């Protein structure tokens, strides 16, 4: 059969299946090195090579077929040697030597090279693999001799084929470009949804509002499901690390093991692509600079084998990734000296620099501890590039290190970049979006508070937020430098709105004119003319059709010179400035309509109950329920916030009820989606209310939380209940 007769789709399907099998083969070979008697790994490798060989014969690709056959024969020999004897049913030891492991890994690399050549040219190329095939054959012959000399009669060899289960038919292959196009269309639908909802709020038509509520619900569900199709487990990156770590450890003459947790943690495909190289560089750093040689580890009283730990988990709507080692750790004194030798810091800066700041020196452009560039270190990606790439996807990276004990790199990255929740703010008549991942808190200061509590240190306006000095930046001034400096702080006659933002390892307060609401926004890339504006990470289209720029918090902080200001303020440890006493309150957190985080003070929460939906009755226009020997008015929060569509299956559900008593003699049951937690938080500083029925907003447990105004909620549904209570 000529290659020209083979359909390109057949070749593409062959390449996809072969590359997937190759990744699994590579992982199983690494497992063999850990434990020679691993029958499951041997069986998987054998089946995969057997299938690859058969497919090559059909296409045909004779070089690839010969290489796969040589590897299959060696694995078959190992499988036969590992089979239990007739006299003893336990597995026998198999001589899987380092030479066999190395040859098998070279086979994987050669097969991968051939597949790449076929993908590019549809041909196998001119590369000669006869030397590798001869080496595999020789290893097979040696293994057969060992088996004959040391084994007793074995059971007949059988090819253990895996059965195709019915569940496999539930999956199909879809081109990534099709998913990208589908995601773009969903993004456009979200924008259109926002515009339609904006129109529905202008026109008081109940039919239009109901239709918009349904559109909102369906769009949100569609958005969530489509985003799931782009999620990939982080194991797609980590599955390559055992091989990388093995090769580097051999090259450096070290002994290293790797432990992986949370490999099934899923992240958007675009995030996976963005963090692949930075994570690989961090792993290389752990082996190159972290793990000591066996001799040094023995001298230090450690095990001669070093350990690298990879961990991933979800944390506050982000993915937390940790890469750590138990090596030598970082020495702040050595880092300071090296940075000074490279001319990156001055002696004066070194004298006042803390240990934490010294560790962060490794992020400076041009910083390196390598004495000379080799083929294993100094490969073009320094820690400054790692940090920059992480920040480009709105992520952060932090370092914890103890000399002699090890180093941990902690990354926090968003789940997706395409559609994100963001806070919409106003400044100088324009609207801007701040990703929720950067937000810490919303603060509203009345004119008198601003005058009393905001002071200036080193020409920097600062605000004491629970005992910590945070520098303030006027967004209007950053974007319009021609305006008078600190104009928002002088002769202030209206309330001052601060958005507290986390940038790198410190906070700052961004002064804006007004705060609007949290919205799901579609991130659009900036045009070439605007890409030089580093303070913006993209743009989005609002409900009224106007464009809002998305603020890059880290670059905004850099442009405002906050790093230097933060250093000065950190050294001002003796500052005596007025601070507010912390009045901590217990807050009941619950999930409201469409997953919104909401809360009420526990002081007005009477108790929590679960009731069947069928227990709710209607008296006049008021829903009620019989509980604890009395008739209790019930308010479903789905009715309060008109952007939501009531759940059509409510009659079959068990409802969660929060019974509140905002006034003496008045108790009402609130129907919520789910009770989350009870936390103790200071609520003396209140952010802007987001919509009717909300008292104010605050950031609790990393989430913007709407604290409900219970009396306003009751008044919106049935003001008569408040009137009766006042009479009593």
UniProtKB/TrEMBL annotation:
Coiled coil: none annotated. Residues 419-562, 583-719 form the CheW-like domain. The modification Phosphohistidine is found at residue 50. Its EC number is 2.7.13.3. Residues 3-118 form the HPt domain. InterPro entries: Bact_Chemotaxis_CheA, CheA-like_dim, CheA-like_homodim_sf, CheW-like_dom_sf, CheW-lke_dom, HATPase_C_sf, HATPase_dom, His_kinase_dom. Keywords: Kinase, Phosphoprotein, Transferase, Two-component regulatory system. GO terms for cellular component: cytoplasm. It catalyses: ATP + protein L-histidine = ADP + protein N-phospho-L-histidine. GO terms for biological process: chemotaxis. Residues 173-417 form the Histidine kinase domain. Signal peptide: none annotated. GO terms for molecular function: phosphorelay sensor kinase activity. This is histidine kinase. It comes from Nostoc piscinale CENA21.
